[in-house]
C-alpha cells in the first residue's frame, strides 16, 4: 500500500510506459548476465528476447494483465477501507454498549411501529381491491339499499354499467342437518355478483343466472373458512344438501381463502330471492354495485342515475323524495372512506413517533460525537483527513441504522399481528394486511434516510473540529455554541412531538371516559342477550310465531335468578336500526312532502323491564294486544316531543311504513329514550310494536339477572333446548359486550394513541436526560468552582433541573400550537370534548414537566455532588 | 531446451512466492533464480512469469516498488505481503503433503499396504 502513496495517479499510457520500462530493464539485465558469462552481444540479446516468446505480442499481453491488476487492486483497496470503517464502528459500538443499546432500541421502536402501521395503511387504504380491474367497480347510491325491482330495472336500463349486481348483508342463517346446528353469517347476492367483481370460486361453480328465480334459489356458496371448519375441507361437500333456515339447500361452490367483499367473515352466500309477484319485490334490501362500461366514468354514471331515478319512482310508486342525493362512487372509496380518517390519524401518530426516535438517535450521536471530540482531534492531528473522519462517523451511523432497522422490521412483523388482532374486524381488507415488498421497501427507505440524517449532522459538526483548539483547551472538548444549539433544538422538537402525541391520547381517552358515562337510556349491566331464529316451518303464521316466542319467554323466565325476559328483532347499538316512514292520522302529509323516518322495534315479553327502559306515560303492551285486537304502538320521549310538542300523543293514531302495513296503530304509551344508533349520537325517534301483532320470525332475547348474568348461560341454553332441540343459539353474550363493540373503534384508537404517547414520552425523557447529563459532564469544572465558592447542593440541583425545564417549556409551547392543529384530524373521533380542551392541554403540560424534571433530576444530583477538589485538579 | 518438465497448473504462483521469500526481488532475479535452481528444466517463459506477478499483485499477495539496483538500474522490486507469506505457507504445506502421498504411491512395490 505504501507504493501507491508514492505513485502519482496514472492513466493507461503511464501504465504502459511502466510495463515497457520494466520489461526493457529485464531484458537488459539478462543480456548483461549472459554477456558476463561469455556470450556474444547478439546471441545474448536474441536469447533474452526469446525468453518472452513472440516479444511484441507478449508485451501487449502484459499491458492487459497490468490493467487488470490495477483494477483489482483498486477494488480491493476500496473494500479494505470500508471494512476498516465497519470494524472500527463495531469496536466503537461494543466499547460503548449502553449508548449502542439505547440508540438501537430507540430506532427499532420507531421503525417497528412505522412498519406495522404502514402495513395496515397499505393493506387497507392503498392496495387495490383484490378484484378484477377494481378501479372500474362502483357503488350505486351508497348508504341506501335498493329493491329487487330496482335491481332488475338498472340491469336492463343503465347504460353506464357493464353489469349491475346487488349485495344484501347481515343475513343470520340457521344451518341444520349437517352435524351440530350452527348460526351462519350469511349474505344474499345477485347471481352475477361474483362475475361483476371478477372472482372465481376455489371449487365448484358460481350462481347461474336463473338461480334467483322462485324454485331455483335453494343453492349456496360456502366461504373457505366454513368449508374447512364445518365440512372438514372435503371435496365431497359439492352437491351436498344442508338445511338453511329449515329449507334444503344444495352447496354448489366454495370461495377461495381470504375472499372478502363488503362484509368481513361471511360464512355463506345465497342468491337474492327475486319474485316479482311478492309484496317484498319493491322493498329495499340490498346495496347495488356496478362495473363501469367501457368508456364510462363515475360522473357520467351518476348523471345517468339522476335521469333514471324519476322513471323508477314512477314505475314502482315510490315516495317523492326517492332518488334524492343519489350518487355513484368508486367501490374502494365507499369501503375504506369510513376508516381512512382513523387510520391516517394513527399513521400520523406513528410518523411523529418515528420523528421523535430519529431526533433522539441524532441527539445521542451528537452528544456522543461531542464526547469524542478529543479523540477525533488527536486523529486529525495525526493526519486523518476531514473526509476520513466524516466517513467513519457516517459508516457508524449507517451501521446503527441497519442494525436498528433490521430489529425494527422484525418488531414490525410481530406488531402488525398485534394490530390486526386489536383493530376492529369490521375494517375492510384488514385480514390481508401484511409486511409485503412495498412495506419492506418503504421501511428500508426510512431506515436509510434516517441513518444518513442522523449520521451526517454529527459528522459535519465533528469533522470541522480544529485540533489545536480542543487539544490546547485541555478539556474533554468544548462544544461550540452551534453544536449545543443543534442538540437543544432536537430536544425541543422531541418534547413538542411528544406533547402532540400525549394531547391526542388525552383527547381520545377523555372522549372514551365521557362515552362510558353517557346515559344510554338502558342499563346494559346485568343483562345477557342471545339470538333465536326458529326454522321457518315452526313459525308459519303470526299466531304460531307468538306461541313459539311466548313459550320460550316463559321457560327462560322460570330460571332461578332471572328477573325480566324480553326480546326485540335487533338490539340497540347492534348496528341494525330498522326504519319506517311515518304518517300521522291527524296531520296528513301532502303527497309532495318527504315522510319522516323513524326507527321501530318489534318486541316480545318484558323487553322494557329487561332493558330498564322506563315507562313515562300511558301503558305497556299486554296479553290482550293480539293479532285480532286493534294495532297498538309505544313511542319514545324524543318522538313524542318531536311530533306532539307539549300535547299528549296518547290516543293518536300513526302508520309506520311496512312496520304497520296499511293499518293505523294507536299510541298507548311513551317510554324513555335510548341511544340506539350509537353512544355518541342523540336518541332517534323510535317506536315499538308488539311482535304478537307483527310476527317477525327471529328475535334477540335480553335476560336480566343478578350481578353475574353470564353464569346463567348454561341454564338459558338448557331452557331453550328443552323447548326446541334444533334451534341454533347464537350471539350468547352480555349486553356490556354490545356496548363495548359499539365503542371498540374509538377504544382501539385511544389505546394505540396512548401506547404511542407513552413511547414518545419515554423517548423524550431519554433525550432530555442525554442532553442534561452531557451538559453537566461538560461543566464539571464550573460546578466545582461554584461548590467551592459555597453554592449549596440544592441550589445546583435546582439550577440544572431548571435548564431541563427551560428546554421543556419551549417544547411544550410549540407542541401545544402544533397539537391544536393536529387535533383537528381527530375531530370526528372525539366525543364531548373540544379539540382545544384547555384542561387536556394543561394536563399534558404538567405531565411533560414532571417527566422532564425526573429526567433532569439524575444528572442534576450528580452535578450537585461534584467534589470541588477533584473537579479543579482534573482536566 | 530438452528435458523440460510440463508445469502443473498453479505451481508457478507458488514458485514465484517462494523466490520472494528471502526478500524483495525484481523480475529478472526471480526468472534467473527459477532457471538456476531448476537447471532450466521448468519451461516457464518470462512473459508468463510477469503475468503471474501481475495476478499476485492484484490479489494482494505481493506488492511492488521501483528501486535502484546495485548496477544503478531502475527496476521494479517485488516483495511478499503478509497475505502472500500466509498463502505461501499453506501452499507449501499442501504441496509437500501431496507430493509425499503421490511419491509413496508411485514408488510402491506391491499392492498390499505396508504392515
Mind explaining what this structure looks like?
The complex is a heterodimer of chains A (875) and B (115). With 875 residues, chain A is α+β, with helices and mostly antiparallel strands. Chain A folds into four domains: 2-95, no CATH class; 143-326, no CATH class; 340-517 and 744-873, no CATH class; 534-727, no CATH class. In chain A, the strands form two sheets. Chain A has a six-stranded mixed β-barrel with strand order 3-4-9-6-8-7. Chain A has a six-stranded mixed beta barrel with strand order 14-15-20-17-19-18. In chain A, helix 5 runs antiparallel to helix 13 (437-463). Residues 1-9 and 473-479 of chain A have low confidence and may be disordered. Chain B has one domain: Arc Repressor Mutant, subunit A (Orthogonal Bundle). The radius of gyration of chain B is 17 Å and the shape is elongated. The model of chain B has no long low-confidence stretch (mean pLDDT 87). Classes of the chains: A alpha+beta (875), B alpha+beta (115). At the A-B interface, helix 1, helix 2 and helix 4 of A face helix 2, helix 3, strand 2 and strand 3 of B.
